[in-house]
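Run log, item B.
One chain of 500 residues. Sequence copied directly from the ordering sheet:
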Amino acid sequence: MTLITHWIDGRPAQPGGGRTSPVFDPASGEVIAQVGLGTAADVDTAVAAALAAAGPWGEASVARRAGVLFRFRELLVAAADELARLVSREHGKTVPDARGEVARGLEVVEFACGVPSASAGAYSPQAATGVDVFTSREPLGVVAGITPFNFPVMVPLWMSPVAIATGNAFVLKPSERDPSASLLLARLWAQAGLPDGVFSVVQGDREVVDALLTHPDVAAVSFVGSTPVARHVHATASAAGKRVQALGGAKNHGVVLADADLDDAAEHLTAAAFGAAGERCMALSVAVVVDEVADELVARLAVRARAVRVDRGDAAGAEMGPVITAAAKARIEGIVATAAEQGATLVVDGRGVVVPGCEDGFFVGPTIVDHVRPDQDVYREEVFGPVLAVVRVSGLDEAIAVVNANPYGNGTAVFTSSGEAARTFARRVQVGMVGVNVPIPVPVAWHSFGGWKDSLFGESHVYGPEGVRFYTRGKVVTQRWPHRTEAAGASFHFAGDAQR
């Protein structure tokens, strides 16, 4: 059985402690590897190597750093199919979907290639007589990323390229459920010429997470995951004096108004709810539909949901694969059962779906639950599975009220042909990322990704301009070069107009 290891100081490293966790093929239900679970001592080793590397890397020229980023970008393009198949094997998502994940991560790498200009400071000559002032952004040192199972390539690439391009050393703690992609990324960084220690991978569970959150030599922590863990990460790392960006859970609403193109809305809602088996933090898991078109839209959604091809991720033509674990499958199916008990209507029931040849796989089929109320479990909980809840409303104002009353504020979308309605929605909705006839409004890399309310803890969003600011700190230099013959002219008083 393959043992998946750490990557520390430029090479594979065996985890200490002797503990392991199984890595499954979610399509077959089989254990395909064991991942070694690291210890606090392993974190100490990785951070020590990162700290030793951070100083020289932070002093490296921006041209040298950019050169590594450009080479990494080319290697990532060449390895895209290998990465996609690794992700599909351990996560279960379809290979085309996994390729899309790599492509969205690649966007951030390309943004990071231009970080020398994005992080350039400002210069003010002659701010006072004979005095110049300039600002710069400097790296923090060692930073850590704790990433989720649902995007084992994209989310590490939201963080590490920006951190590394700005001169930091980066320690990654990937999910133990699909850890192999992180090691391939480490090898690509090494092949690109990144110095040993600048990118490390420490496999593990909560022991590793808590060691990173409290380590005195880790200056900042980036996290993506569930809201309860995001709260813990933010509280623990903040108490230890670190910068923290902690992205939590989501309950994303797709609002369909009466003037929407219903075929277009149904197509996009289907893909956004059931793609990657609903295991996306930006999945549209709630359709908020105006009463007068609700019956018609639900009928169209039902036809499309029943037509989704559920199969193992590497099967030709597969549109949706399994969920990540047997426990996830049981939890999702339990929420669907409770929805029916609480009075919702099961329009399409995906429980019990069987894929021939994968009878032990962790499959749940597309599920549509209609007449859902905000007090029901299927609405309140982050299902994180292929379940679309339909909430009926009277119009735009009630739809906005439903979205704003939800404790999450990650992403939302509105389907409409009215510019006035779209603008009203975008202005009034209390959500961090908004799509207008765009079902999954993940920002391009030169903007930044992040939600509101219980979907984000800390002030900073991920990647883009906010990522650059998160991984750097500002310095202002005020300088004066007097002539040798000039009188000192020092004063005990604060500078006034006469001294300007």
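Observations after the first pass:
- The mean pLDDT is 96.
- The domain at 252-436 is CATH 3.40.309.10 (Aldehyde Dehydrogenase; Chain A, domain 2).
Flagged for discussion on Thursday.
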